[in-house]
Amino acid sequence: MSQDILNEIKGFEPELREIRQDIHRHPETRFEEHRTAALVAGKLREWGIEVTEGVGGTGVVGTLKGKRQGQRAIGLRADMDALFIQEETGLPHASTVPGKMHACGHDGHTTMLLGAAKYLAAKPDFAGTVHFIFQPAEEAGTGAVAMIKDKLFERFPVDSVYGMHNSPGLPVGVFATRPGPNLAGADFWGVEFEGTGGHGGGAPHLATDATVVLGHFLLAVHTILPRNLHPTASAALSVGHVSGGSFGSPNVMPAKVVVRGTARYFEKKDQEVIKRRLKELAETLAAAHGCTATLTYDVLCPPTINAPEKVPVAVAAAAAVVGKDKVGEIPLSTGGEDFSFMLQEKPGVFIRIGNGVNADGSFHNVHTPKYDFNDDILGLGAAYWASLVKQELGWAEEENRA
Ligand SMILES: [Zn+2]
Ligand SMILES: [Zn+2]
Q1: How far is the centre of ligand 1, averaged over its atoms, from the C-alpha of 269 (Å)?
Q2: Nearest ligand, measured from the Cα of 165
Q3: Which of 29, 220, 229, 291, by CA, is between 20 and 30 Å from 211?
Q4: What's the CA-to-centroid distance between 269 and ligand 2, angstroms?
Q5: What is the mean pLDDT of residues 209-218?
């Protein structure tokens, strides 16, 4: 019974709080999670779990086999990195590193997965293998890829992979997810328009003018979402940078101008339309004015897409801990999450766990200097992970009958 899991984990919750606050005091950013990784590896070993360090840089994988025979394997993933933010919580366990803090709760994510590891190591009544995946550099959007490129899923084969993120504003004791897209795909794009440039005062008629093309293009960009995507599609397309010419020489028509922006989308087909239309508009508008256009398009992370067949598994695991009525459907968010890369490799689910909300409805959101992970949910999160292993890899017979 998952309620029993929660009660047992609550027995060592003080240790989890200590671990979480220790990690919080010592935040480490992208690929520099050496202390955190060592702490994770040390705890896993202390509990008798096989440890592989240095996976994709500072990543750590703990491997635990169930005491019953089974060929199936599950991956549970937590992220370990902090952000470049100056903490302003004033808490006793506040960051001791100037300019860095755990403002996204990855200290809590790491600790919840450690809590599940400790519980499962003491009670490995499942059939198969659990790989505890501790990932670096989520905030850079490159940690998951680094682990995958380091052959994460070849060295630690899994049938499914699961991730969890805390959600400020969602009450304590609530879990939420949704089938299909959850978080947006996030890309950067840029166009360089090139003409001849020339003497803007003396001989404009002898030049081709990239700034005119840029002007047309800036307006045309904003026709893509309403005119090329389906009216019900969710997406964002924004310009964030424009440059060209010399401030000191406004009488010189620049030969090159540059525009850069971001695209957010939930469907690959929408990403393809956005990319294709940016290129078509840039090239045709440039050609109309005797210039050329070169598009660069960088995919940062794909949309986070839950495998529909795995969502009921995650929902059942959460419901077993907090009750069916406390597991809801989360709305789409245009935030990004690099767990999406793992979900491209293996079917699984990204779930949100409520980090709590004040009585007046207020809360400090992630990525802000007053945010803190809520230690009251450490047990709930760890119990969800253990309950998920129970869902995916079965449990001891006497438990099933209970
Ligand atoms: Zn974040
Ligand atoms: Zn995060």
Answers
A1: 26
A2: 2
A3: 229
A4: 26
A5: 98
Query: Cα dihedral sign for 386, 389, 394, 396?
Result: negative
Average pLDDT over residues 15-33: 98
Measured in Å, residue 222 CA sits from the centre of ligand 2 at 30
Please say if the pLDDT value at position 198 is more than 70. Answer: yes
Measured between alpha carbons, how far is residue 68 from residues 31, 71, 176, 400 in Å?
36, 10, 31, 14
Distance CA 100, CA 111 (A): 19
| 108 Cα: distance to centroid of ligand 2 (angstroms) | 10
Q: Which residues contact 400 (CB under 8 A, 6 or more apart)?
A: 394
DSSP line for 219-240: HHHTTHHHHHS-TT--EEEEEE
Q: Kind of pairing, strands 175-177 and 327-329? A: parallel
Overall average pLDDT of the 344-367 stretch: 97
Best CA proximity match to 20, nearest among 321, 379, 357: 379
What is the separation, in whole angstroms, between the first and last Cα of the chain? 7
What's the rounded mean pLDDT across residues 331-338?
92
| Residue type at 87 in one-letter notation | E
pLDDT number for residue 395 = 67
Taking the CA of 105 as reference, the closest ligand is: 2
- Residue 340 and residue 204: Cα distance in Å, rounded? 50
Could you tell me the distance, in angstroms and rounded to a whole number, from the CA of residue 228 to the centre of ligand 1? 31
Mean model confidence pLDDT for the chain: 96
Unique residue bearing structure tokens 């019900």: 232
Is-contact 249 290, C-beta < 8 A? no
